[in-house]
Design a protein that fits this description.
Blueprint lengths: L1 E3 L2 E3 L24 E3 L2 E3 L6 E4 L5 E4 L2 E3 L6 E4 L4 E4 L2 E3 L12 E6 L4 E4 L2 E4 L5 E7 L4 E2 L2 E2 L6 E3 L2 E4 L6 E5 L3 H6 L3 E3 L2 E3 L8 E3 L2 E3 L1 H6 L7 E3 L2 H11 L10
Parallel strand pairs: 1-3, 2-4, 3-6, 4-7, 5-8, 6-9, 7-10, 8-11, 9-12, 10-13, 11-14, 12-17, 13-18, 14-19, 17-20, 18-21, 19-22, 21-24
Antiparallel strand pairs: 15-16, 22-23
């Protein structure tokens, strides 16, 4: 399946449950799905949402912004590449744990999230998150967050409490065994002393994230003016998100 060069905007005007089914898109039980060069914005619910037994998906070169819930989600699914997207200011109207991240890997395995530009709004939302819960099993086996890699992304966080990292509401031992890894990411924040990171149930500052064994080659820049320039340069003029 190929989904390419579409504008998907301002859907679910009646506000049906975005936590369950409604929003911009939802893909179920696909193989070799490709979603590229789409502009997905101002939908009530998630933006690009893979949910249930999707395998070998490629999500690339999309611009996803101002959606009511998470921007890009890989949920209870298998291998996926999420790369070279601009994902900005999603989920700030909802504050539901880390389900309102810009890019979310939820009980999925072998997902690579790389070279994306991610912007967390001043009003709220989160960056890139991995979630582990008790979700059972399906067509691809157990739904656990394992061997996910988040690397070489730029995450600009204008908020006071936005988080990036891996968390669990239960089955923490599965998350610990899962070999999930964050590294080589560049974070642009007001202060590295703020707790913008999470690992194994703890909210951490930058030093704490590195002490947790993550981001050995990561970088923090304390310059929100650079974040604004990064966002302005990254978004195609045809599909332009408002700057924070």
């Amino acid at each position: 399946m190929l989904v390419e060069h579409n504008v998907i905007a301002r859907n679910n005007r009646l506000g049906f449950s975005g936590a369950w089914e409604a929003g911009a898109t939802k893909f179920v039980k696909t193989r070799n799905l490709i979603v590229r060069h789409n502009c997905v914005h101002h939908n009530i619910g998630p933006g690009l949402w893979l949910d249930i037994d999707n395998v070998d998906a490629l999500i690339e070169h999309n611009v996803v912004f101002e959606n009511d819930r998470a921007g890009i989600v890989n949920e209870i699914s298998g291998r996926a590449e999420i790369r070279d997207n601009v994902v900005a200011r999603n989920g700030y109207r909802k504050d539901n744990w880390l389900w309102n991240a810009q890019i979310l890997v939820a009980n999925s395995r072998e997902t690579t999230v790389e070279r994306n530009i991610v912007v967390v709004a001043r009003e709220g939302g989160h960056g890139i998150a991995v979630i582990q819960q008790k979700r059972g099993a399906g067509g691809i086996g157990a739904y656990n967050s394992q061997r996910n890699v988040v690397r070489q992304n730029v995450i600009a966080d204008f908020s006071s409490g936005g988080l990036s990292g891996a968390i669990a509401s239960d089955e923490l031992e599965e998350l610990n065994r899962g070999a999930n890894r964050f590294d080589e990411n560049r974070y642009i924040v007001a202060s590295s002393a703020n707790r913008h990171w999470a690992w194994n149930g703890y909210r951490l500052d930058w030093q704490g994230m590195r002490e947790a064994g993550q981001e050995a080659n990561g970088q923090v820049v304390e310059d929100l003016d650079e974040a604004r320039r990064t966002l302005a340069d990254a978004i195609d003029p045809v599909c332009r998100a408002p700057e924070s």
